Amino acid sequence: MTTPPSRGGRTQRMPREARRRQLLNAAHQVFVAHGFHGASMDEIAEVAEVSKPVLYQHFPGKRELYVALLDAHMDEFSALLQQAINSTTDNKLRVGATIRAYYEYISRDSQAFRLIFESDLLNDELIGGRIEAFNAKFAGRIADVVAEDTRLPPAQALLMGRAMAGMAQVSARYWVDMADEVSMEEASDLVSRLAWRGIGRFPKES
Prior knowledge:
Low-confidence stretches: 1-11
Number of helices: 9
Order of helices and strands: HHHHHHHHH
Strand content: under 5%
Number of strands: 0
Mean pLDDT: 86
Largest sheet: none
Structural class: mainly alpha
């Protein structure tokens, strides 16, 4: 539990990076509860148990705080996806590992997953652009696997990469609400088999 401010109103000093993590954790709670538009810097400071000046020392405004939080979540998810992609040179196993990464991340932190894919700022140029760049990066990596295995033209492979990333994302978001009925292993395996059998219907050209 975070140590509360002293009665004299001074917030306990801590290393800058530790303070930043504390503020991001508080922002996560508030943004998840209220969305961007319903959140306030006052409430974030209150949840973090710091004064507003301390909050503004680290983040000049709510939008900058939201972007920093989103970037932190996407960096964590990116690392998990990259690890899955690099885990094997067998394309069938690689597709399965990548789809499983979506399930692992949402099972680990479903609210962070929703902040990335269900943000109420998707129409914001900066934030929506960041999320689109994230999606495009990994759809492109999946497209490379598709192209290698099917030898489809780049544009067609990218379309399939987008479809597979979307399938993983949407199915994982649906699965998290029924995790008591279907295990993560079973769910990700079902979707992986569906995806791979789809790719398998595109034979390589000689």
